[in-house]
Design goal:
The complex is a heterotrimer of chains A (about 750), B (about 270) and C (about 160). Chain A is an alpha+beta fold and about 750 residues long. Chain A folds into three domains: about 20-30 and about 460-600, Aldehyde Oxidoreductase, domain 4; about 40-140 and about 205-280, Aldehyde Oxidoreductase, domain 3 (Alpha-Beta Complex); about 295-455 and about 605-755, Aldehyde oxidase/xanthine dehydrogenase, molybdopterin binding domain (Aldehyde Oxidoreductase, domain 4), CATH 3.30.365.10. Chain A has 18 helices and 30 strands. With about 270 residues, chain B is an alpha+beta fold. Chain B contains ten helices and 14 strands. In chain B, α5 (about 90-100) packs antiparallel against α8 (about 125-130) and α9 packs antiparallel against α10 (about 245-270). Chain C folds into two domains: about 1-75, Ubiquitin-like (UB roll) (Roll); about 85-155, [2Fe-2S]-binding domain (DNA polymerase, domain 1), CATH 1.10.150. Chain C is built from five helices and five strands, in the order ββαβββαααα. In chain C, β3 and β4 form a beta hairpin. In chain C, α2 (about 85-90) runs antiparallel to α5 (about 140-155). The chains are: A alpha+beta (about 750), B alpha+beta (about 270), C alpha+beta (about 160). Chains in contact: A-B, A-C, B-C. The interface of A and B includes residues 128, 633, 680, 690 and 753 of A.
Chain lengths: ~750, ~270, ~160
Amino acid sequence: MSVVRDRPARLVGRTLVRHDAVEKVAGRTRYAADFGLPGMLHAALKRADLPHARLLRVDTSAAQAVPGVASVLTAKDVPENTVWVDVPGQTFQVGALKARANVLADGVVRYHGEPIAIVAAETEDAAVAAVELIDVDYEELPVVDDSEAALEDGAPCVHEEGNLLASWQLHEGDVDAALADAHAVVEQSYETQFVDHAYLEPEAGVAWLDSGDVITVRAATQVIEHFRDLARILRVPDNRVRVIAPYVGGGFGGKEDMTVEPFLALVVQHTRRPVSMVWSRSESLLAREKRHPMKLRYRTACDADGRLVAQDVVILADGGAYALLSALVLLYATTCSQGPYACPNVRVNARVAYTNHTPASAMRGFGAMQVALAYEGQMDLLAAELGLDPLELRRRNFVERGDTLAVGQTLDTHIALPELADRVEAALGPKPEPSTPERRVGRGVACNFQPYGRCVWLNDWASAWVGFELDGTLVVRIGVPDIGGGQASSLVQLAGEVLGVDPADVVIHIGDSALTPLTGTTTATRQLYMSGNAVVQAALELREQLRPLAADLLESEPDDVEFAEGGVRSGGRDVAFRELIGAAAKREVPWHRLSIFRAPGGDAWRSESSWRGRVFPDFTYGCHSVDLEVDPETGHVDVLRYVAAHDVGRAINPLSVEGQIEGAVVMGLGYALSERVVYEDAINLTGTFAQYLIPTAVEAPEIEPIIVESGEGLGPFSARGIGEPPIGAVAPAVAAAIADALGRRLTVLPFTPERVAEV
Amino acid sequence: MIPRPFDYERPGSVEEAVSLLAAASGREAKLIAGGQSLVPMLSLGLARPDLLVDISRLELDGIQAVDGRIRVGATTCHRTLELDPGVRSLLPLAAEAAWHVGNPRVRNRGTFGGSLAHADPAAELPVVALAHGGEVVARGVDGERRIALGEFFLGYLETALAPDEVLVAAELERLPEGSGVGFHEEAQRADDFALACAAAVVKPDGGARVVVGGVGDRPLRFDGAPDELAAVVEAEVDPEEEAFVSAAFRRRLAVVCARRALARARQDAAA
Amino acid sequence: MTLELVVNGRRFREPVEPHVTLLRFLRERAGAIDVKYGCGEGVCGACTVLMDGVAVNACSVLAVQAEGTTIETVAALGENGSLHPLQQELVERGAVQCGFCTPGVVLGSLEAVRLGLAGDRPTLRRSLAGHLCRCTGYGKIVDAVEAYRDREGATS
């Protein structure tokens, strides 16, 4: 993507106040639940009380008789009761996978909390009362609540086709020979847990029947393209469904698959009335999809100089009851399992199993972050084995530009890991002293990498519309959902940069599948890369479209025209945009532009054999360090200080970049120390924020983000994505620090006080 | 997500409240003051009373010295206990413990009496009350009744209050002049329910008392020599095995809390 | 029962059922959508409002218990469309991402500063413990409240 060549950036690289921040701080933003229509119904779900059972009878008669109930729907009322997700398949063992889930349970429930019926009523009270009166006769079925047990012979089947959901197999070089010859081999198992997104805004939405019989859903979502999935479920044409994404109160992948949308759309189809649905926090914690837990077994070997010679990796993930995005998550884990370290011999045996746990799907880090606990742990073990400083061992192994990961992925952009490690080391002073004689202070470092942009064979694209109004103000129309990471405001900044318009004169309309050009999902750390490039491209094309006219008005050469400060200028003369566009209108020069940015694609996936080749466009690299204090008696961990360095290519808005790093670090600390979903026989016991422990301002340390700008990234102005990357390095850094403090390495997440105290 | 419907009365006096409770026979009636435990339970569907009797405005707040005891009114807010300088000097143990109760918004509404009557075994103020000793003052159809604190907490969310009784105050024994007090809590996060907590008193005559919470179905009180109490706690507490926290770990934390509370109490006594 | 109260300067006199929380009343009957439902347990702080000047979790108060009180939400801050200084600091220091926790954080922080419970960063963080944020990592929120506290100290 060509960058603006003609002058130093005026807006890019500056910390601009986000337009949405002003509205949010004043409480004026209308999130999904802050919207209503006259005559609106309230919908609620009847959810399964058991994790695996046949539904012998679902009796909704008492529910329907509750005064105020307008509609009670079950599986038979859903025109197409299947949500299909096309996912790249795996090896010959499993074959191509069409991930399949029900909208409403049909004859069987497979996880605790699976939706069985929808009630829509005049009031929330009536809906809740009616849900309680839905009578379900269950026949309990054997429960599978462990991924290893799920894959043993004779295990109860969650789905007819068996419990192996997906598998990725990889063998580059000769791992066994390398292990046999190695100077040092370390072997360890690691285990990660189910966690919840725990966004502050619960799942919510409102839907209604609009003109043209267009079923319109305004919901907290990361993906407005779900209008197609809804159309399929409802068996209506695609153009009769519209999805609007208001500003979302946090997503983190949890609002990537559909949440309330299909239920709302069904009620609208049946009743032709507007309807609202807001999930309770309990529902969200109990039944919303989670992050994949992974059991990781690694053997890692190096030569006498500490250079890696072999990585032998076994990954077993728990996909829960439905596939959703599990196969893709596993692919990310497989690709990144060797870490950002060169290694000639790599074998990965990765599988994900169905169980009767809550379905696992997308969550910030998406598989590539879970494996970091293992690959970093292995580096620490090798370093100890060789008597080397942990960062020194890593330096000897960092991938470099031109290297290829075992999966076949070449790394062709700058890899800043050495500089990141330098910057982190420089930031660290001496390790702090313990606050009491009984406590121990530990320091840990970790490096990681995380892809940004979608898998290349998906041939990703994003479109944007940029146009002036007659008065010279600017409008951007783009389908991007803004989930809090400044997705919209960064586009204002970019459009303003290219066209020379003050951000205060730019209005952006986002997130409407009917009215804004589609730009794809706000996931996979792809939005800055994709929609950012789309907006820059549209703005550049618009600028070039207007340049001849501008030159004419300024009586100068086109190449001498500068778009800046609210107008065009050349040789001491300037013309405000209002005048320029007025002239454009008269002379029929278009003053808007729609543009499609296409990411460089890749080879189509082939189903017959183990897939090899480029998977991702690029990666963002990081290096973190944490100082923490442990109370060995109580297992309490105080995080004293956290340093996080990332190469972001170019920081479009540095304050936003810092915010993403800091937020991801704290989410990672929760993952490392306190967050877990606890099940008993696949019944989810974790239904409140009092039980699901996300970090508060007290647990969060002072964080020092270090932003490195290598100037090489595929995004606008050479930016790289930063939404997900920082989360991966946190748990390994904490593991290393606790090991430093206690002399004992913990390998099962989260490192709760009980596990740290080792009672 | 939302409370199920119930009837609601806001009586103008304690007597009226008592009558309402007594007349409720057959229906489940609950008192509500600050509501910081009850209203969330209503929203979660964990409590489904037929009738709520609101005593939050009955002017049952306030702290006074009364006959060698300190009388704490039932509707005294945790926030008052936490922040009021007068309270800090009269009831230093309560002031320190109150800081651990929930978060500031919860403390702004939650009440001392509510905490005692709710009797969550992990709650801080019952532990403090038991450390002081004294009596709960209740009013029922038969008039005023005093219940020794040692006999007040009967089990998980269970007290000696009769269904028609309103807890109007607790009269806490003044600690002997020269006593030292200490409180210690272990919770995973700052404002969480305690995994274990302990209040300790070290008396000038050399005796000590420690009360631990969170490790049984009610707070447990132990008296003895300061050096021996931690071992007594370890031997006596018998927490239940739970999915989130093991019994062994809770026992460990109870012992640590007791020991640290006692250490603070010793320091406080020396000062 | 009939409930009388004032919300952001507007007087309400409405029949309301006892089981309706103050949160639900404010959102559905008083149009105060800036008061958010985050957990319903009193843990997350997204529903914080000022009731007679005292910060409370609206989800943990029954509407009927607010009889005769004056409720202020974040919408009551600022004059003539301009932001309150604390709001300005939050915005300028990048402390607002998804914004869902923000209204609660504003009101809770104002009380902490007013009561002198924001004197240093650890104490400030402790006062913020009942305001959960999943986006920012809290650092910039603490920066903003500190800056506001210093501004207040300078002008008072």
